[in-house]
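Complex 79.
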Amino acid sequence: MPWCDSCSAHHAPTALDGGSCPQCGGVVTDNSPHAHDGVDEEKTVGQSAPWHFWIVVVALAAYLLWRLVIGIMWAIDKF
Ligand SMILES: [Zn+2]
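Predicted structure with zinc ion bound:
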């Protein structure tokens, strides 16, 4: 957002009078925070889970399956 030091006010970029302040004609500086384009950081969000995560998932699934077998055998033994 363009900023005028003389008026101490922000002005719309389209309202600028040839790059100078439309009210006082002074120098307008653009101090917008998104003026620098350093937003090329690599994003690792879309990557898949690491390999050890799947080991944990497989181990958990095997454990739950084993507990299910134990439970079924217990139920069969019960009746
Ligand atoms: Zn001004």
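The chain has two domains: 1-32, 50-79.
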